[in-house]
Automatic annotation (TrEMBL), chain A:
One of its GO terms (cellular component) is plasma membrane. Binds 1 FMN per subunit. Binds 1 heme b (iron(II)-protoporphyrin IX) group per subunit. It comes from Thiothrix subterranea. This is Protein-methionine-sulfoxide reductase heme-binding subunit MsrQ. Pfam families: Ferric_reduct. The chain crosses the membrane at residues 21-38, 58-75, 87-105, 125-146, 158-175, 181-200. Keywords: Cell membrane, Electron transport, Flavoprotein, FMN, Heme, Iron, Membrane, Metal-binding, Transmembrane, Transmembrane helix, Transport. It is a multi-pass membrane protein. GO terms for biological process: protein repair. GO terms for molecular function: electron transfer activity; FMN binding; heme binding; metal ion binding; oxidoreductase activity, acting on diphenols and related substances as donors. Its cofactor is FMN; heme b.
From TrEMBL, chain B:
Mo-molybdopterin binds at N27, Y30, E31, C85, T120, N168, R173, S184, I185, K186. The keyword Oxidoreductase applies. Transmembrane segments: none annotated. Predicted to be exported by the Tat system. The position of the signal peptide cleavage has not been experimentally proven. One of its GO terms (biological process) is protein repair. It comes from Thiothrix subterranea. The keyword Metal-binding applies. This is Protein-methionine-sulfoxide reductase catalytic subunit MsrP. Its EC number is 1.8.5.-. Keywords: Metal-binding, Molybdenum, Oxidoreductase, Signal. InterPro entries: MsrP, OxRdtase_Mopterin-bd_dom, OxRdtase_Mopterin-bd_sf, TAT_signal. Part of the MsrPQ system that repairs oxidized periplasmic proteins containing methionine sulfoxide residues (Met-O), using respiratory chain electrons. Thus protects these proteins from oxidative-stress damage caused by reactive species of oxygen and chlorine generated by the host defense mechanisms. MsrPQ is essential for the maintenance of envelope integrity under bleach stress, rescuing a wide series of structurally unrelated periplasmic proteins from methionine oxidation. It catalyses: L-methionyl-[protein] + a quinone + H2O = L-methionyl-(R)-S-oxide-[protein] + a quinol; L-methionyl-[protein] + a quinone + H2O = L-methionyl-(S)-S-oxide-[protein] + a quinol. Residues 47-202 form the Oxidoreductase molybdopterin-binding domain.
């Protein structure tokens, strides 16, 4: 099997060096935004730039989280799975900041206006729903919760599929009706590949020596 | 033309003007790409000289005029107008130009002329964004004739005392300050006097989102944006959007008896 031949990073380098580097890299988008605010390089409408960038990074981290087990099945790199919690939590982290930038910088906590947005604008509705679905995943990401929930933890965390779809839809519906859908389309295609791989493994059992987990 | 020569207009606002850099780098001009930064990056591909404008339809003096002949009879004045984008941001821009009515009268529209339609240049070699089917090219816009003849309606050839940069719609563009920005069509090559309400590019693309009138109206939402507030570029807090973008006193009478919720 390919699974045994894949290159692995030697311990303790994985834990002591690789993981911290990934952690630092995951903070880089935020640092660059902060630097952009400081240096005033975010353009004429920095708040729009910040909100959109944080939203896109949320999606990117969700896709990266989904990529890890696909990568394991495709290349046999099993260590990647140990980054999954961290990347998933970064997705939540950027999601919280994205939501906060909307609530604060866009709406200035005008709750009536926010509620109106949620009810009236489908792209906000699905974005909020995606965030709501992401929250229990973040809250149950620590060891004690995993132990306590047992098999239900696995079930609960399949929510990453619908919530990522909602995230992509949120981005899609933000785009103009006919134009500007090219970038959301890229995310949709990447997600389709990641979900398609799972569907394919699941429907063709002889390939699924490694069980399909997220 | 130096600013001191340009006449001051009573239509101008004394609100703080948006910096030149913001006006010239944050643009919607899909002919050069759909990102706000694309026009500043690619608009130099457009050749604005020589330039000509075709005038046709219900008028006594149709024809094809080169830019010099279009501009010659008009003395330029400065108009400091608010610009409100349908996306919920706004600017204050010191335009340079002349009233649209002065231009249109030269062609002597007939009694059949009820509307005016405009078209932007259509040449994907000069406007690479037109290679993609994001809108129905050429970009088309229109006004009711009485809207077009209103003294606020303006043809801009410059801003901040300088000639227009391509990303702002050089060499001549429309400015209709009480309507959302996309009505103010850029880089005009055709003006037609017509009897029936003309199609517009955005109207064809999404009729439920972009109506023919597209007057700034805080009471009527766009499906994706509340229009109650706006962010003035350069400001942190949002401000309330005003009916007809603050020009209600001048233009509200154009729409008396019209249901603005239906005629959005």
């Amino acid at each position: 099997m390919r699974a045994q031949t894949a290159v692995q990073i030697r311990e303790p380098y994985f834990t002591k060096a690789f993981k911290p580097v990934v952690f630092a890299l995951a903070l880089l988008p935020l640092a660059l935004l902060g630097w952009g605010v400081w240096q005033d390089t975010l353009g004429a409408n920095p708040i729009e730039t910040i909100t959109r960038s944080l939203g896109e990074w949320t999606l990117r981290f969700l896709l990266l989280t989904l990529l890890l087990s696909t990568l394991r099945r495709a290349t046999g790199w099993v260590q990647g799975i140990r980054l999954r919690r961290m990347l998933g939590l970064f997705a939540f982290f950027y999601g919280v900041l994205h939501l906060l930038s909307y609530l604060w910088l866009d709406q200035f906590f005008d709750w009536a206006e926010i509620w109106y947005d949620i009810v009236e604008r489908p792209f906000i509705t699905v974005g909020m729903l995606a965030f709501v679905l992401m929250t229990p995943l973040a809250l149950t990401s620590f060891k004690a919760a995993i132990r306590k929930l047992g098999r239900n933890w696995q079930r609960l965390h399949t929510l990453i599929y619908p919530l990522t779809m909602l995230g992509v839809l949120h981005f899609w519906w933000l785009a103009d009706s006919k134009s500007r859908t090219e970038v959301p389309l890229i995310y949709a295609v990447l997600l389709a590949v990641l979900l398609g791989e799972r569907l394919w493994r699941w429907s063709v059992p002889r390939f699924s020596k490694t069980p399909v987990t997220h | 033309l130096p600013l001191s020569v340009a006449a001051k207009s009573t239509f101008s606002t004394d609100e703080e003007q948006t910096p030149f850099d913001d006006i010239t780098t944050y643009n919607n001009f899909y002919e050069f790409g759909t990102d706000k930064s694309d026009p500043a990056q690619y608009a130099s591909m457009m050749k604005t000289s020589p330039w000509s404008v075709t005038v046709d339809g219900e008028c006594a003096k149709p024809g094809k005029l080169n830019l010099e002949d279009i501009l010659k009879p008009h003395s330029k004045e400065e108009r400091i107008y608010r610009l409100r984008c349908v996306e919920g941001w706004s600017m204050v821009i010191p335009w340079l130009g002349f009233p649209l009515a002065d231009l249109l009268k030269r062609f002597e529209p007939t009694s059949k002329a009820k509307y005016v339609s405009f078209e932007t240049l259509f040449d994907s070699e000069q406007m690479p964004g037109q290679k993609r089917n994001v809108l129905d090219w050429p970009y088309a816009e229109g006004l009711r004739l009485d809207e077009a003849m209103h003294p606020l309606s303006f043809i801009a050839t410059g801003l901040y005392g300088k000639d227009l940069l391509n990303q702002n719609g050089a060499p001549l563009r429309l400015v209709v300050p009480w309507k959302y920005g996309f009505k103010s069509i850029k880089s005009i090559v055709k003006i037609s006097f017509v009897e029936k309400q003309p199609d517009t590019s955005w109207g064809r693309s999404a009729p439920g989102e972009y109506g023919f009138y597209s007057n700034v109206n805080p009471e009527v939402d766009h499906p994706r944006w509340s229009q109650r507030k706006e962010r003035r570029i350069g400001e942190f807090r949002k401000r309330d959007t005003l009916m007809f973008n603050g020009y209600a006193e001048q233009v509200a009478s154009l729409y008396s008896g019209l249901d603005l919720r239906k005629n959005y």
